[in-house]
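Box 3.1. Reading complex inputs
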Amino acid sequence: GQQVMQIPQYQHVQEGEDFTTYCNSSTTLSNIQWYKQRPGGHPVFLIQLVKSGEVKKQKRLTFQFGEAKKNSSLHITATQTTDVGTYFCAGPGAGGTSYGKLTFGQGTILTVHP
Amino acid sequence: DAGVIQSPRHEVTEMGQEVTLRCKPISGHDYLFWYRQTMMRGLELLIYFNNNVPIDDSGMPEDRFSAKMPNASFSTLKIQPSEPRDSAVYFCASNSGNTIYFGEGSWLTVV
C-alpha cells in the first residue's frame, strides 16, 4: 500500500536556526497536507498543496510540493520556541480523495532550545 | 463553532473492561474519522464514515473494536474487551472539504 515517509524523525535546533522536514511518498499524490501537533495537543491543519512544484508561504513557514508530486518539504526560517511540536505530512490513501482517508507520515518532532 | 468534541478526555480502565469513546463532529461535516496515535505506530486511521455510513474500516485492529455513527452528530468507538496494548490517544476528526479538523483526543490507559 501507499507509504508516506518523513525525515528526520527528530530535530533539535537553537532558537533562530532554520528547520526543514521532508516527506516522500511511494506513489504520486493528488495533494499533500501538513499538520502541526503541539505537545499534548491534537493535529492542526496547516496547509494543502495541490499543484506540481507548488510553493506556499505562511509567515516563516515555506511549503513545497515536488514536481513529480511524490515529495514535499516544510521549511521554517528562524525558529522560535512557539514552533515546538510534531509536524506531519499526509497524503490521500490508496483510492482516496481529498476528503477521504489520509496516510500520515511518522512526523518530525521539533524541539527548540532558547 | 465548538469544533470536534470528544469524551472522555482521559480514561483509565482495567483490562477486560469495555471502553466507549464518543465524538460529536463539526455540524455540517459529512466525513468522520477515528484515528489512534501511539509512539510506536504514529497516527493510524481506524475507520471513517461518510454521511453516517462506514466507508473503510480496514484500519480497525481487531474484532474487539467497533464503531458506529447513528446520526450526523454522534459517533462512538467501542473496545470490548480492552487490553493494555490498546492504550493510546484516540482522535476523532471531521471534514467537509480539504481541511480535516481533529478533536482534542481521548487519552486511554488500560492497566
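In summary: DSSP finds no helices and eleven strands in chain A.
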